[in-house]
Design a protein that fits this description.
By secondary structure, the chain is α/β, with parallel strands linked by helices. Helices cover 35% and strands 24% of the residues. It is built from 13 helices and 20 strands. A hairpin with a 2-residue loop joins strand 10 and strand 11. Helix 1 runs parallel beside helix 2. The relative contact order is 0.09.
């Protein structure tokens, strides 16, 4: 995606360096425009080094020229303004186009993400509130500000949102909201089946795939419930996802069954343990007393149970982590469990669990789509595309 990052003159301008760096690392092409005041806080050369592109500051300068703002506005697919000072917000709200930032904004017709940053009294001033309302009515996607310590030393609401939050907001802003009004339930991660308080049966699943699906669904407007096992890193979950943490397979089944009331889709990405100890010791069992033939009981098959209970009323997607013949195993699982689709992926040493890259196939009643070589985030996007297409068909 082609992104223009616009920087205005505030102490938070240094955070814009991280925003640009994250966008470039994410594969986006970035151009930076600055107000003259911003160039007093961060040198344009810094942004040039981070983006690999020239930086536009002066309307009549060499880096942009008198019509440079027109070219940039037409080149961009998204505009990020960070930080946005009270002064800049006032100029944008009134159409006072006097510098490269305001000129690009006035000429751009696409998603705009703005991260305000100013002293708390300025943020709460009636004029700023009025300007904020105008900008939101114009379609600007505001992110922040947050509460924290200001450059003045005072504490309050006015601190610019963190760079990762701004990048997340950009992804939200450019994503289609084709799942608005829908509810998706996603399971993620391994389950822990305890023998005693310190020993358990589990597997290497990190829950990355389930989190990627949940984040993509939330970004596209769905009410999303993530039933997350203890291995899931919860700070990677989109803020609009409802998290329901669980430990065991029985816990997960209970939460899934509760969440499925009113839901449209279940995505069973969790690596649920197949068995659990029949008896769980209340206290730690020491080595001399450990039974080598500890009795085990089968865990419920959550996706099969839900597919049976809802009898084709809801969209059911399963996962198949295989070390060989993944497509054949996924086709078998889809038929036997009555699922609409199964996402099969190869796992083993150096691939699958805990890795961003993997080899996967989407197996449906219509055939097999190979997703080889894609990242889990890309696979999640394609899976949610398919879910959206299927829901529209229904």
């Amino acid at each position: 995606m082609r992104v223009v990052v616009a920087v205005s003159g505030g102490i938070a301008a240094y955070k814009a360096c991280d925003v640009v760096s994250r966008l470039v690392k994410g594969g986006h092409e970035v151009r930076v425009v600055m107000t003259p005041a911003a160039a007093q806080f961060v040198a344009p050369l810094t942004f040039r080094a981070l983006s690999g592109q020239s930086v536009s500051v002066n309307v009549d300068g060499d880096e942009g020229g008198a019509i440079g703002h027109v070219a940039l506005a037409r080149w961009a697919e998204a505009l990020v303004i960070a930080p946005a000072t009270a002064s800049l917000m006032a100029r944008l709200a009134t159409g006072d186009a006097r510098d490269m930032v305001t000129l690009v904004y006035m000429g751009f017709r696409g998603p705009v993400v703005m991260a305000p940053a100013m002293e708390p009294e300025m943020w709460s001033h009636p004029r700023t509130i009025a300007n904020r309302i105008v900008l939101e009515q114009d379609g600007v996607w505001l992110v922040g500000p947050e509460e924290g310590r200001m450059a003045s030393g005072y504490i309050g609401v006015g601190r610019m949102a963190e760079p990762e939050t701004i990048v997340e907001a950009l992804q939200d802003a450019v994503s289609p909201h084709d799942l608005a009004g829908r509810t998706l339930v996603v399971t993620a991660g391994a389950t822990w089946e305890h023998f005693d308080p310190v020993r358990l049966l589990t597997n290497p699943s990190t829950g990355m795939m389930g989190v990627a699906v949940a984040n993509q669904a939330a970004r596209r407007g769905a009410r999303t419930v993530l039933v997350a096992g203890p291995s899931v890193t919860l700070d990677t979950v989109h803020p609009h996802v409802e998290i329901r943490p669980v430990v065991s397979a029985l816990d997960m089944l209970t939460e899934v069954r509760s969440a499925m009331h009113g839901a449209d889709v279940l995505v069973g990405a969790a690596a649920v343990s197949d068995f659990r100890p029949e008896q769980v010791a209340e206290f730690k069992v020491h080595k001399p007393d450990i039974a080598r033939d500890w009795a085990m009981a089968p865990n419920p098959d959550i996706i099969r149970t839900m597919a049976t209970e809802y009898g084709g009323q809801k969209l059911m997607i399963g996962f198949a982590a295989e070390t060989e013949n993944p497509v054949e195993q996924a086709q078998k699982k889809r038929r036997e469990k009555g699922l609409d689709a199964v996402l099969a992926n190869l796992v083993g040493p150096g691939r699958g669990f805990g890795h961003g890259s993997h080899q996967a196939w989407l197996v449906t009643g219509e055939g097999v789509e190979e997703l080889a070589g894609q990242t889990k985030a890309e696979t999640a996007q394609r899976l949610v595309d398919w879910i959206s297409e299927r829901l529209r068909g229904r």
